[in-house]
Structures are given as C-alpha cells and as structure tokens.
Specification:
Order of helices and strands: HEEEHEEEHHHEHEHEEH
Structural class: alpha/beta
CATH architecture of the largest domain: 3-Layer(aba) Sandwich
Organism: Thermoleptolyngbya sichuanensis A183
Number of strands: 10
CATH topology of the largest domain: Rossmann fold
Mean pLDDT: 91
Low-confidence stretches: none
GO molecular function: ABC-type quaternary ammonium compound transporting activity; ATP binding; ATP hydrolysis activity
Strand order of the largest sheet: 6-7-8-3-9-10
CATH class of the largest domain: Alpha Beta
Membrane topology: Peripheral membrane protein
GO cellular component, one term: plasma membrane
Family: Belongs to the ABC transporter superfamily. Nitrate/nitrite/cyanate uptake transporter (NitT) (TC 3.A.1.16) family.
Strand content: 25-35%
Number of helices: 8
C-alpha cells in the first residue's frame, strides 16, 4: 500500500474533481452525485462501496467517459478526459463478450480498432490469455465457457489495450459464491502481476476489503463520498485473511459507516 510520503511525491493517475450529476425526471431535477472528489495514485487498487442507487455506477460511467458530468471533470495523468478513451479499460458485471467471436477474437477486438499489426495482435492476445489462464480456450466461443471464465476473457480484453486505469463495475456480482471467491483470488493475483491502477465498485464489503488498498464509502441521495477507509493489510493476500481479526475489524467499520 502506498505510504503518505510516496503519495505526496507521486502525481495522481486518476482524479475526479468536483463531479456532480443530475437528471431531469418527469420535469423535476434529480441529483444523483454531489461534488465527488477522488484521487487514485499509480498502482493503487481502490474500491467504492455503497447501497444500491447511491450513484456508484453513474460515477464509474462518468470516469469511463460514457456519461458526461453535469459539472466537474475527470483527469488521467493530469489531462481532462472528454469521453471514452484507450487510457481507461472497462469491465462490466455482464460479460459483454461478442458471442459470434472466439475467446481470442474477443480479446483482440480492441487491438483491431487500434489497427495493430496482426503478428503483434497475436502476441498480445497470447500473453493475456496466458495471464488469465485461458490459453487452451483461445478457440472456444463464449457459450462454451462458465461465468467465471467469461469474466476472465472480459478482463483480458480490457487489459490487452494496456489502459492506464482499469475500471470495474461489480464484475463478480452475477457469479455464485464459490466462483466469486475464486475470481477475487484471481484478481488479487493478477493485480500482483500487473500492478495496474484499478477503480472498482462493489456492494460486497468483504470483496472491497480483500482486493483494495483503500475503500471509499458512498452515501446516497445524492451520492457523496462520506468516508475513506485505508486497508492496512499485507499486499499479498489469500482467502483465509477474511477470517482474521484485522479483516473483521475493517468490515465492522465499513458496515457501520454504511448503516449510518
């Protein structure tokens, strides 16, 4: 986990600056987000937790450039982002794979849009399929994969374009409990390998603590960041950590904040 001195010396990789979002519903203005300020530093894994309807997904979609803010701005490496870009990779709860493409073709999709030479595409796809443990499924189609395997393909596709920041919108929310824990362990190991900067939203408090270096708790109506909880746990983690007194203490603190 980056210490205070390291943070002060580093520039943020991702900045959310005074971001608010409102929608007009049946003639009335509905404020969803209220002046969100957030900094994420290089190599950090940060989670946002909050109740359903608190604006987590809206905030992530604004960071991804899929939804414009009503006010405020998002910056990557100090540059304002006007919309979607290759500097941000996105993984959704639904697997969003193209069913008519093989696993390898799905992972290569973004590389084709970048007009990368074929030989380089094949090398990049092979590397990331190996990274997510799906080399032997390169020629398979999404319908032949389990839910966890589909999400691994989606993560490989997002990583293949080498984004500066990986954005994850409840990526394991649709999985059963056992597969979900396996994918949490997989993502922890993957982050150890790549140390990519990650912003992930989840409603699962245990998942947020297990994966991240910091957890931000959101309040709702309108969504605000109400508390930041540093996760002072070893960087390398296994699932047994969830049973430790330190982990349970953090879980109590975050649950208490959510209930307030």
């Amino acid at each position: 986990m980056p210490d205070v001195a390291a943070k002060s010396a580093a520039l943020p990789k991702l900045e959310v600056c005074q971001v608010s979002k409102s929608y007009r519903v049946q003639g009335k203005l509905l404020q969803v987000l209220d002046e969100i300020n957030l900094e994420i530093f290089p190599r950090e894994f940060v989670c946002l937790v909050g109740a359903s309807g608190c604006g987590k997904s809206t905030l992530l979609n604004i960071v991804a450039g899929l939804v414009p803010p009503s006010s405020g701005e998002v910056r990557v490496d100090g540059q304002v982002v006007p919309g979607p870009g290759a500097d941000r990779g996105m993984v959704f709860q639904s697997y969003t794979l193209y069913p008519w493409l093989t696993v390898a073709q799905n992972v290569a999709f973004g590389l084709q849009l970048q007009n990368m030479p074929k030989a380089q595409q094949q090398e990049r796809v092979a590397y990331y399929l190996h990274t997510v443990g799906l080399t032997q499924f390169a020629g398979a189609y999404p319908k032949q994969l389990s839910g966890g395997m589909k999400q691994r393909v989606a993560i490989a596709r997002a990583l293949a374009t080498k984004p500066e920041v990986l954005l994850m919108d409840e990526p394991f929310g649709a999985l059963d409990a056992q597969t979900k824990e396996q994918m949490q362990q997989f993502l922890q190991d993957l982050w150890q390998q790549t140390h990519i900067t990650v912003l992930m939203i989840t409603h699962d408090v245990e998942e947020a603590i297990y994966l991240s270096q910091r957890v931000h708790v959101m309040s709702s109506r309108p969504g605000r960041l109400k508390q930041e909880v540093p996760i002072d746990l070893p960087e390398q983690r296994d699932l047994d950590l969830k049973l430790s007194p330190e982990f349970l203490s953090l879980k109590r603190e975050i649950l208490h904040s959510l209930r307030e």
